[in-house]
Specification:
- The complex is a heterotrimer of chains A (344), B (339) and C (397).
- Chain B has 339 residues and is of the alpha/beta class.
- Chain B contains twelve helices and 13 strands.
- In chain B, strands 7-8-9-3-10-11-13-12 form an eight-stranded mixed β-sheet, sandwiched between helices.
- Chain B is globular and about 65 Å long.
- The mean pLDDT of chain B is 89.
- Chain C is built from 13 helices and no strands.
- Chain C has helices at residues 11-30, 34-71, 94-118, 120-142, 181-217, 219-234, 237-247, 253-280, 283-290, 295-303, 308-332, 342-351, 361-389.
- In chain C, 40% of the residues are buried.
- The chains are: A alpha/beta (344), B alpha/beta (339), C mainly alpha (397).
- At the A-B interface, α5, α6, α7, α9 and α10 of A face α8, α9, α10 and α11 of B.
Chain lengths: 344, 339, 397
């Protein structure tokens, strides 16, 4: 990349305290996001994708490592620059019912940031800008919603208001944390298409966090996907590659497990058998590659010995953190996998 | 499927909720039949009445709900036909677990955190006259093996010692404790992870094939319906707008809403896709629009749709649809869906 | 001439009220809004009559809002039109702006009134409070305070004895000095209620300020405040209040209210702190943090509006508690006794052995019933308050 990245995570760690235990939620996460880029973070619950999103949005400090915004660590920003940096990084939350303050009308919700940051001068301009923002997120005619309270809107409409609110401060990056997962499926797509349009119109980058692989694939087609597992990025690369030619056994397991809205295909789909169905607890993360106790391609002495780092693998365009692949051993089915898998 | 193996037959069932603004038609004149060993998926978006419908089947409706009309006929194993809506309280209790069991969504909340799994099974067994503890235990362990849980460990565990997927499977086993003919699953795989969802689907399919019960499950996830169901019913605004065998529904939809849903969900297998979402939002069920309730959002709607309510008519023996413009829908579907 | 609270319950007050009603009344009649016009006249007249210029002015503003909200058609606002952005003129004169703001105020008043009427129990409580208010403000117009003792040789005209039971002339009977109990009920609530309300307000202010600080700032501040509140909570508060009230002799009831507040804030403070903690984690607060809107915005725009219902309801309960505590203090004789006062009536009932005199039941029961009714009205009224302040029940246009 010749351009300077908008956001760069370097060896970011994050731990949370639970009683006396320290829970490592993120471990050695490296990620760059270019201006105007779309990156999908995909993974199951507890993989750290939301924490990553919060750290990028500046809502949560990292425990270790560096987060760079336009080449400088977030902590180094001071005064006006810091304010501008914070405005540049916005977040859209998952729950449309919790993300808008029930005490204010939609017009008020949008006017607060516009007024506070003096993005507009005078009442006429304020109202014009609110009108524009609501039109931008396809809430038309704006007059129908501007005086309503959030609870009078549908989930999809609220999510549009959330996005409009993030846009008030003209951000450079929006973290969309499961932003459509609680919206009815028939209108999900229109929200995603709107986000795409906004990216083109307003030149923002979008980090889209989701647990839904198909949605990630649709949204990030032609862009990049990062797959996370237990606090680490295990595979990252162009969407077409990660989904169509996945490298990491975990990604493959996910893709093979997803049901499809096509009865014949979904019933004849080849399923990957895992050696264990249990997700390890974050307090007891397995040694080496965290996926090795479940991985059907486990290589003893390799996978459980070294913590893998992202690297190139032969035959794959994406980066992957899997020792047998990056070290050129290739994937071979683990012998003991013949035993019947026992859960519990 | 033969006519005589019908387990549950619902006719003309309506459910209203009393609200401050007036009655809300959550379920409106729904009819369907459930056969032995059949898996019926009710799919639709939030607020379409699918949860209300299954609650009505179990007679678990909240106190502000009313059933103005309808019949739910249930055929027991020995061939007696009973009307669920007219059942006495005592009989209803027996019916609820031993004939028709319900597995709730949100496995976290459905299990009491201070009660061991085994006590939950003992209590349920005793309440429904299963006899000795040993009988309950034996049955429970057998069911745990079927749902691929480590029987002894799980049986003696507290709910918090189990993962979300394991709890969901414990609930499935608990639902099957009294060997019901019909199992109702409310969003069985919502809010669980992909790999957990896979396990639950696999376990459910396997145990159904082995024990031969019927399943009614509600899901907003079309993919899960595509994988598990024999029959799929699309619900919109409290009505079944289309019902038919799974392949018919997914490859030859006759209703604008079914087609709309199919066109709105992304798929993993396809290359770059063109998806279209359904414009607008679901109607107000207190003052529903006249005619077909979907006509305001339907790309196929003609003038007639806003006047007359389309009846549910046969496309063929098993496939029924409530749409005046079904011919145009299927023509469009043939273009867009390549099976 | 006193035009403020001094004008209450006088002809001047009524005149002020009617004068205040003229602008909104004229506006209402101009727009042919007869029902709002009638309401306006009634509300303003009552406001002026009961609280002089203050009440009249308040009603003038509120009722103007209500009338404007009826008259001001929002469809005329370019903002709610269906035209395209280029056709809309967003400029707005100050006059239009203030009209719009007044209309918004009016809608809030109307919504609150609807919420008040909708909840039957709450409305009953509201009526009860209105009854006590009317009794305290207007009662003196009709009933003279009977403060001087009447002894055997000069009993009240129409009275046969001291401690007389209820009769036609004296609906609540006579007390130990042959005085009219009804007049003591009418005059005796003012101080007690005012002191309780003061105590409740002060407690709430302390609790909300400290609770929000602990919840929003966290860390050392939170630990220190929590430790302090825990410490106070372990003290048996009422005995301490009794002792302190006995040591420090109060001639001003406001100090008594302050003492109450100083001892009773921890319970509410902990509740407020917990609320702030839970609200702080809400997504919309997080979004406000990401938007960098600043701490004042967080407190006054995001957190407090969602706590008002909670705070107000708890304030009511604190007022209730304060009233009990005050009555208790007086009953035990730990504060200077000053007539007329409901609590003093009970105190005297105890000290003058009224308890053993069946004929004197009314003297003791009347204040007890008055206090109980007032408390009941307060508690019932909280139901309506909950609905009024619940943002989810609000309706925008």
């Amino acid at each position: 990349m010749s351009e300077q990245p908008l956001i760069e995570l370097r060896h970011v760690y994050r731990t949370f305290k639970q009683g006396r235990q320290l829970i490592p939620v993120l471990q050695d996460v490296n990620l760059t996001i270019a201006p105007n880029e779309i990156v999908c973070l995909v993974g199951e619950s507890g993989c750290g994708k939301t924490t990553t999103g919060k750290i990028i949005a500046g809502l949560l400090p990292q425990s270790e490592g560096e987060v760079l915004f336009q080449g400088r660590p977030l902590e180094s920003y001071r005064g006006k620059e810091r304010a501008a940096m914070r405005r540049a990084l916005q977040i859209v939350h998952q729950d449309p019912f919790a993300s808008l303050n029930p005490a204010h009308t939609i017009g008020q919700i949008l006017s607060f940031p516009l007024k506070h940051h003096k993005m507009v001068s005078g009442r006429a301009e304020l109202r014009r800008r609110i009108w524009e923002l609501l039109t931008l997120v396809d809430l038309t005619p704006p007059g129908d919603v501007v005086n309503k309270y959030p609870h009078q809107l549908s989930g999809g409409q609220r999510q549009r208001v959330s996005i409009a609110r993030a846009l008030t401060v003209q951000p450079k990056l929006i973290v969309a944390d499961e932003a459509v997962s609680m919206v009815d499926m028939s209108i999900r797509v229109s929200l995603l298409q709107m986000l795409h349009d906004l990216r083109d119109k307003l030149n923002v980058a979008i980090i889209f966090i989701t647990h839904d692989l198909a949605l990630a694939k649709y949204f990030a087609w032609g862009e990049r996907i990062a797959v996370m597992y237990l606090g680490r990025v295990v595979e990252i690369g162009p969407t077409e590659q990660v989904i169509g030619n996945s490298a990491h056994p975990y990604t493959r397991a996910l893709i093979s497990a997803v049901p499809e809205a096509d009865p014949i295909r979904t019933r004849s789909k080849q399923r990957m058998k895992l050696r264990s169905e249990d997700i390890p607890k974050l307090t007891e993360i397995p040694s080496g590659c965290a996926f090795h106790p479940r991985c059907p391609f486990f290589v003893p002495g390799v996978c459980d010995a070294r913590v893998p780092t992202l690297g190139a693998a032969e035959g794959y365009a994406q980066q992957v953190a899997c020792p047998p692949l990056t070290e050129g051993l290739g994937l071979r089915e683990y012998e003991a996998a013949a035993e019947a898998p026992v859960a519990g | 499927m033969a006519q005589n193996d019908v387990v549950m037959s619902v006719r003309d069932l309506s459910v209203n909720y009393l609200t401050e603004r007036g009655p809300l038609q959550a379920v409106n004149r729904i009819s369907f039949e459930l056969h032995q060993g059949e898996t019926l998926a009710l799919m639709g978006e939030s607020g379409c009445g699918k949860s209300t419908l299954v609650m009505a089947l179990m007679r678990l409706l909240p106190s502000n709900a009313r059933v103005p009309n309808g019949e739910i006929h249930y055929t027991t194993r020995d061939g007696r036909v009973i009307d669920v809506l007219k059942m006495s309280k005592g009989k209803l209790r027996a019916f609820r677990w031993s004939e028709c069991a319900m597995v709730f969504q949100g496995a976290l909340n459905a299990l009491n955190p201070v009660i061991r799994v085994r006590d939950m099974f003992y209590d349920t067994g005793r309440a429904h006259g299963m006899g000795s503890k040993d009988a309950v235990r034996e049955r429970a362990l057998e069911l745990f093996r079927l749902v691929r849980l480590d029987p002894e460990r799980v049986f003696n565990a507290y709910p918090h010692e189990l993962s979300g997927g394991m709890r969901q499977r414990v609930l499935i086993a608990l639902g099957l404790l009294l060997d019901p003919q019909v199992v109702i699953l409310d969003e069985p795989t919502t809010a669980v992870d992909i790999l957990t969802q896979r396990t639950i689907i696999d376990v459910l399919m396997a145990i159904r094939d082995k024990l031969g019960f019927s399943i009614i499950f509600i899901s907003h996830d079309l993919a899960v319906a595509a994988e598990m169901a024999d029959t799929v019913a699309t619900m919109y605004a409290g009505e079944i707008v289309e019902i038919g065998p799974v392949n018919e529904m997914f490859y030859r939809p006759h209703h604008g809403y079914t087609l709309g849903l199919l066109e709105a969900i992304p798929s993993l297998a396809a290359e770059a896709e063109e998806l279209v979402s359904i414009p607008g939002s679901p109607p107000d069920l207190i003052e529903p629009p006249p005619g077909c309730k979907f006509h305001e959002r339907c790309p196929f709607a003609v003038e007639r749709c806003s006047r007359e309510v389309p009846p549910l008519v046969d496309v063929d023996e098993t496939h029924r649809v409530a749409c005046f413009e079904a011919d145009r829908v299927i023509a469009k579907a043939r273009e867009t869906i390549q099976a | 001439m006193n035009l403020g609270f001094g004008a209450a319950a006088t002809l001047t007050g009524l005149l002020i009220g009617v004068l205040c009603s003229l602008p909104p009344l004229g506006l209402a009649l101009k727009h042919r809004l007869y029902r709002p016009a009638l309401l306006t006249l009634a509300a303003c007249a009552l406001g002026g009559f009961s609280a002089g210029l203050w009440g009249g002015a308040l009603m003038l503003v509120l009722m103007s809002g209500v009338v404007i909200s009826y008259a001001y058609v929002d469809r005329e606002d370019p903002f709610t039109s269906r035209a395209s952005i280029d056709e809309v003129d967003f400029s707005e004169s100050n006059w239009e702006f203030s009209l719009r703001k007044m209309a918004a105020l009016g809608r809030t008043v109307r919504a609150s009134a609807h919420a008040l009427v909708r909840n039957k129990a709450g409305f009953l409580g509201f009526l009860g409070l209105v009854f006590f208010f009317v009794m305290i403000v207007f009662g003196p117009l009709f009933i003279e305070y009977d403060g001087q003792p009447h002894y055997y040789d000069r009993l009240k005209p129409g009275a046969k004895t001291l401690f007389q039971g209820p009769s036609k002339e004296f609906p609540l009977g006579l007390d130990w000095q042959g005085r009219d109990v009804l007049s003591h009920i009418v005059y005796g609530g003012k101080n007690l209620i005012r002191t309780s309300v003061e105590a409740g307000l002060m407690t709430t202010v302390i609790a909300v300020v400290l609770g929000s600080m602990a919840g929003l700032l966290g860390g050392v501040v939170d630990q220190a405040l929590s430790a302090l509140s825990n410490f106070i909570l372990t003290i048996p508060t009422f005995p301490l209040l009794v002792v302190l009230a006995g040591i420090i002799t109060f001639d001003n009831h406001t100090y008594l209210a302050l003492l109450f507040a100083a001892l009773y804030w921890p319970t509410l403070m902990r509740a407020v702190r917990a609320q702030v903690f839970s609200l702080r984690e809400r997504d919309y607060v997080q979004a406000a943090v990401a938007l960098d809107l600043g701490l004042p915005h967080l407190i006054f725009r995001e957190v407090l509006p969602n706590m008002i219902s909670y705070i107000v309801v708890n304030m009511i309960f604190t007022i209730r508690g304060a009233m009990y505590a005050l009555v208790g203090l007086v009953f035990l004789g730990m504060v200077p006794v000053q007539e007329p006062d409901w609590a003093v009536m009970i105190y005297i009932g105890r000290t003058r052995q009224v308890i053993f005199n069946a004929r004197a039941a009314s003297m003791l029961l009347s204040p007890i019933i008055a206090i109980a009714l007032f408390q009941l009205s307060l508690v019932l009224f909280t139901r309506s308050l909950e609905e009024i302040f619940n943002p989810r029940l609000r309706r925008g246009l």
